[in-house]
Amino acid sequence: MNVVEVLLGVFGMVAILGVGLAFVAFPEEMLKLRFAHLRSTRRYITSTRVTLYRIIGLGVVLMGLLGLFGFLF
User: Are 60 and 25 in contact (CB under 8 A)?
Assistant: First the structure.
């Protein structure tokens, strides 16, 4: 494995972690982006969807961390 492959792998895993952290930290904003084509997004942002987005984000963060450590070590 050369240096370019290692850097691309690390940057890819960091990008996955960034997406997961965005879902965990800002689930309301992610839901607004999802329903941006509608006039009013207020009724689509429910606590159940926010919780679901946080769980999905935690799963993505966990997969990113496992991938990063598995790739590096």
Answer: no
Top-confidence residue, 3 or 1: 3
Alpha carbon distances (Å) from 48 to 19, 31, 69: 20, 12, 32
What tokens does 70 get?
A: 């598995």
Task: Provide the token pair at 71.
Answer: 């790739």
Which pLDDT tens digit goes with each residue over 39-60? 777 777 888 888 998 999 999 9
The answer to whether the Cα torsion of 30, 33, 36, 37 is positive or negative is negative
pTM of the model: 0.74
Sign of CA dihedral 10, 16, 22, 38: positive
In whole angstroms, what is the distance from residue 3 CA to residue 14 CA? 16
